[in-house]
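Letters spell out the chain; backbone shape is given numerically. Both lines appear below:
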Amino acid sequence: MEHKVLRIGTRESELAVWQATLVKNLLAQNGYPSELVYIKSEGDIDLKTPLYEMGVQGIFTRSLDVALLNNRIDIAVHSMKDVPTQLPDGIVQAAVLKRASYKDLLVYKGDFSNIEETLNVFDDKIENAKQSFTIATSSVRRKAQWLNRYPNHKLENLRGNVNSRLRKVEDSSWNGAIFAAAGLERINLRPEKSIELDWMLPAPAQGAIMIVCKNDDHFAVEACTNLNDADTALCTQLEKDFLRELMGGCTTPISALAQMENDEIIFKGNIFSLDGKQRVDVEKKVTRANAAHAGSEAAKELLLNGGQAIFNAIHYGAK
């Protein structure tokens, strides 16, 4: 029996196309033909319904979700960390692929034989130092964690897709910039001068790819369900639950990581003040069988132990 050709929506960046092509190839292995459909930004889409009525949020996922709801595509492929904690009405998570690296990378410039030693030297607490170490990132999470570790470094904003951000770093006077390892490694762009920041806790669901479909498109949902990695789906769900409970978005430095070890899940999460000076951490170990509410329970614990005060200060200016 011939399957209909599934239309996979993708943004046009190299990384987005790589992710969509991966899904296309995986579907083909299971006998489901598909094709890529390139979706322009929101302004190019004929919207029949206002976005707020659809409940569509998410600056990086919105255009694909709208295309899905308007029947221009059958499947949307997202970097899971970009997906809002609440999916739009009518859209369901059909699969989460096996996670790649969850880590953040420092891509640096200069002839440093030991970059970690260099970072500490430049953060030597000398007032009015003639030189400062400048790092670029637009992520408030990365900024806060970096400043917590290196309070005397200078942080600059860096936006754009992976390729344009790498170019900006090369053309700038910055000493380096922070990237998600998975994004660079997937499209073979990880520079030689890069180190994994093992001490930096990632964004919830970093390194995972999510596939969404319309909830009434049973054919597409069934095709994609075969691609789901149960361990990744569970761990990323806990991280997203943690974020949802904290009402966190891209304006709050919130990090979370759940990792499966044998039949146990180790969950770590934290929240920082924007300047990195305050932090509250939480860590939990649960069995897989008892994991369902671990993310939201960790968030409640974090709020009670000082996280609420940090959250209030960021959002309401409370001291």
Summary: Confidence is low (pLDDT under 50) at residues 43-56. The CA atoms of residues 122 and 133 lie 6 Å apart. The chain is about 35% helix and 25% strand.
